[in-house]
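sorry for the late reply, my laptop died twice this morning and i had to redo everyting from scratch. anyway the thing you sent over, i finally got around to it. pasting the sequence first so we're on the same page, its 65 residues, then the predicted structure underneath. double check i copied it right bc i was rushing
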Amino acid sequence: MKIQYDSQTDTIYVILSNDKIVESEEKSKDVIVDYNEKDEVVAVEVLNVRENEHEIDLPFILKSA
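ok and here's the structure:
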């Protein structure tokens, strides 16, 4: 797992796998989940980190893939 923060876009990106991303879905406001060809979660992106409070149920996101 790798976590990156981009201060210019105020985005946190949690990379769970190096698989190719084939689909992305907004799970909740400012939370985008990326999937591989097997519909497995590859990464989670959180936008507007400093601007908004975020409650992310990561176990739910990983199970719902």
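The longest strand covers residues 23-28.
thats about all i looked at so far, will dig more tmrw
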